[in-house]
Each structure stands twice: as structure tokens, then as C-alpha cells.
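User: For my dataset I need records formatted as: sequence, then C-alpha cells, nothing else. Please produce one.
Assistant:
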Amino acid sequence: MSVLIYGRDTSYNVQKVLWLMEELNIKYSHTQLGGKFGGTETEEFESLNPCKKVPVIVDGKNVVWESNTILRYLANSYGAGTWKESDAYKVSQFERWMDWSQTKFEPAFVGVFWGYYRTPEHLQNKSEINKSIKSCTDCLSKLDEQLKNQKYLLGEKISLADITTGVFIYRLVGIGLSIELPNNVNGWYNQLQNSNGYQQWVMSDFSELKGRLEY
């Protein structure tokens, strides 16, 4: 039996789930949903996720939504010996970066990606875009310090911290702004690009989103 995942593959929240599925060698079936594909307003989908958002996975009788919750579920269900961690303190080490990514890095990234790339030029607020670029630069500096003398955010092994944070880098450097990655972050980014899941799902064409405010 394969895990079912629902969500458009241009969503970075969907991408990070698909990336982890590849890392875990999970057999899965992917259905494009949301955005131009529609389908999130149906009663059937609402029965899976009352918030009507993607991604959603169905694993047998288990329905899981919210992307970071899905990542934790998959790691705990399928990542024994590699991604699953039972020590509470070690769990806190990657979860703090997951939380930081969601509350600090993601808002900064969204300010740049939506403010500059997805907003038509005549509607752009240059001042707000510059503030978001500054916030992204600050976040990259924190990542650079954390990555000093190590391949990944928690050492020599990739973790959920890298997935929730690394999913933003490809778009951040590919939208046409002069945002340079610090040395350690650039080395980490190069490591991420060696992952088949990152190549397949994160390093994908997102040009259809340019200048488009609707999902």
C-alpha cells in the first residue's frame, strides 16, 4: 500500500513532504490539488482537512495535514534508524530549527517571493521588499554560523531541520535578485542539491508563478 499525498507540486510545503518521501524511499501516489488544479473546496477534500489546505497525506487509515506535522509523522513512521529520533533532547535540536524556519525564515522568504516575484511589478512595494531581503540576509547569517565546520544544520547527517529550511534556498537564489549565500550556506546548499528528492521536487520550474497573485 502506498501513501497518498495531495497538493500542487509548486507549493514549497508540498515539495518538502515529497522530498522527505524520496529520502525515506516511501512508496507514494501524488495527486495534484490546489491552485490551478482546484479541488480543495470539495466536501471530499474538506473531510480530509477542514482547513482546506495542502499538503495532506493519507497513510492507510491515518490522515495527516500541516506540512511540518506530516514530516514528523513520516520520520517517526518510516525513518527508524535514520530519521526517527527517540531521545527528547536530540528531538528538540532539530525541532527548534523547524520552528525557527517556520516563524522567522519563512516569513522573510515569503516577503521576498510574494512581494517581488509573485506580485506584478506595478503593484510591488519596494520598501517592503527591501525589508524582507534584509530579514532573509539576517536569517542566512544565522544559518551560516550554525553550519560552521559541519555539512548539515545538526552535524554530518541530514535531518528535518535541513528539509524545512533548505526548501526555500532554491527559489531565494533563483528569482532574479542579487541575494548571495554566505560560504557555509552555499556549501550546505550544494550538499542538498545532491539529494534526488531535492533535485526532483525542489529544483523544479516555478516560472508559472511569476506575477501571479492567485494560488
